[in-house]
Amino acid sequence: MLKFRKRTQNRDVSRLTLRLWDFTGTASLNLFMFLFLLIYLSPLPFMVIASLTPHAQFLDTNAPVLPSRRVTFNYEGKDLVVYNVPTENGTQQWALYKPSRQSSEFIDPRHPEQGTIHWVGPWRTLRSVYTFSPTLDNFKNFLEITNLRLYFKNTILVAVISEIGVLCSSIAVAYGFSRFRIPGVKYIFFLLIATIMIPSNITLVPTYFLFSGHMLNWIGTWLPLIVPHFFGSAIFIFLLRQNFKGIPRDLDEAAMLDGASPLRILISVILPQSIPVVTTVALLHFFYVWNETRLASLYLGIRPDLQLISFGVQRSQSFFFTPETLMVGALLVMIVPVVVLFLSQRFFMQDMIVTQIEK
Amino acid sequence: MDIINRSGVITKSKTVKGTRSQQEARIGLLFLSPWIIGFIVLKALPILASLVFSLTNFHMLTPEDTKFIGLKNYAHFLGDGRAVASLFGSLGYFIATIPIEMFFALFLAAIFTSARLKGKRISRTLIFMTSIIPGASIFFIFQGSLQYIQGLILKPLGLPPINGFGLLIPFMALWSIGPGFLILYGAMESVPNELYEAARVDGSGPFARFFYITMPMISPAIFFTLIINLTGAFGGAVLLDRGYILRFSLSPMEGYINNVMFVDANLGYASALAWVTFAIMMTITIILFSSSRRWVYFPEEDSDVEI
Predict the structure, then answer these.
(1) Are A248 and A183 in contact (CB under 8 A)?
(2) Does A322 touch chain B (CB under 8 A)?
């Protein structure tokens, strides 16, 4: 009896330590992730801060770091800038009324009825007073100079059409590379890898010639940006092949014995086991089209109404090359990919939800 | 009688086997056909054209003066200090960034497969997000954020300012792990759970499970990430475009080739440089591929299919 009690006590203790151990493990893992993200993302708040900062602040080297505006004081219908003025009674916040090189006239905003105060000294060395005040004007101005809605529509159309092409063809070709015994296939695969290695800009001129009025006459259309994807992307074929080869053949051999056709095997055996990698390819292609500028500038330069977002925004930025315009543009371009990325997580999670097993 | 019969059976089964493998090859080629057609029209012809350009003094501003000059462009490369320096710069960039990118991508992907981690959706989005920040603004972000870290944190605490330039390359490498992370994470998610369960029943801990199951099972994805980082460093295909304009590139060698091409408009020499880069990348890739037999795992390996 005593012995039995002792044993249950022991079991309780061990269960408690196990739980404690489990809790510390979970806590430290999450804490680590939180700290990592904190450091990893530390430069990002600058984007938001800069995009909310009025332009004048970047020109003043003495301005504070956070978005602010100059404090002004309305006197006799005019907005006067308030400066920190050193006086015998400490630093005073006075509004500059009549600037002049050697000495200036100031107004004390708290006692405007006292009239002007004479101060001897160069007013340009004074620092103006700032208050914290983020502004959305940068966004407003940027949307005025950029036809963002049109660019959004164009880019989504091009991305979706080419996405269909690149997924269908790359999956089919990767399946061909991973599952069929074809004589000489390794040389074809070698060519595929070689095309990844060729510096892309060097085939630019011959390819441009192919699409130009001399041959296909596709300049000023979306075709040069869409059609090549329907022949598969070497980099994605390589990625998908690596994954397909990792799937054991038992299942497709069983399906083959049941009389399933190769296409059927691809759709109902291979693809369901490759959802994470197919999602990865779909996302990477979407982001690729979203950020594409080189081909867009080359083939759509003469058609602003067909232009894509990344190049359209960069062109606006090149007219107003200031930190706040750059950050506003970057933030606006990033919205859609970030939302798409967030929503696509469901497909990565699928495996985990079904099994609920820690790996 | 018996002998004839037997030989008949043997020849019959041989022809059946022959047609079946032929049929398999034919179906396989059918699946490969989109890429083969695209390769011939969109890749092979432009690549051959650039090979021809590399043997001429093709200048984009004066195309009528184009002459065949043989291997002079390649000879010029050997005496071009900037080209050789850019090439070593690319190699250095690859060697400097690859450990950071691979380590963090693998490490984070491994953490993310743990069921204990909370808020995966948002943190995965945040980790990937930095890889799609447009290239035009990324230097401003880096510079500006250093400034505000200085102004808000270091200065009030009386700490010395950070020297930013040494941090730029590790920072850029870290902020580009998105695609590698996504690929490795996808690969880890595809590892069959039965393997882990079996290992758990056998009493192996999380580290043993990672090194003896996860690592071998995702080695194809690791190999892929390695190759893609190599091509990115030398200016080949990239997984994710940061939206750089035509002339700009993070890769020193690609930057130099673009400079020769778009500023000097010397297409002949630029093509020759591209072919030299290509030869070097291909050599490294072949070495990696031949080493891959030893460390990249595929189930039911076919020696005649694998390179």
Answers:
(1) no
(2) no
Check CB contact of A64 with chain B, cutoff 8 Å: yes
Q: Structure pTM? A: 0.83
Residue with tokens 């160069």: A122
Element counts in chain A: helices (H) and strands (E): 15, 8
Q: A273, B190: Cβ pair inside 8 Å?
A: yes
| Closest among B205, B236, B230, B210 to B292, alpha carbons compared | B230
Q: Is A292 exposed, middle or buried (0-12, 13-18, 19+ CB in 10 A)?
A: buried
Dihedrals phi, psi of B273, to nearest 5 degrees: -60, -40
Which chain B residues contact residue A298 at CB under 8 A?
246
Candidates A50, A180, A313; nearest CB to B144: A50
Is residue B226 a contact partner of residue A238, using CB atoms and an 8 Å limit?
no
pLDDT 10s digit of each residue in chain A, 359 long?
A: 455 555 566 667 777 888 888 888 889 889 999 999 998 988 888 888 888 988 888 877 777 778 888 888 888 878 888 888 888 777 888 888 888 888 888 888 888 887 788 888 888 788 888 888 888 988 998 998 888 999 999 999 999 999 999 999 999 999 999 989 888 888 898 889 888 887 777 788 888 888 988 888 898 999 999 999 999 999 899 989 988 888 888 888 888 899 889 999 999 889 988 888 898 899 999 999 998 888 888 888 888 899 999 888 888 888 888 888 888 988 898 889 899 988 887 776 554 433 333 33
Residues of chain B neighbouring A355 (CB-CB closer than 8 A)? 193
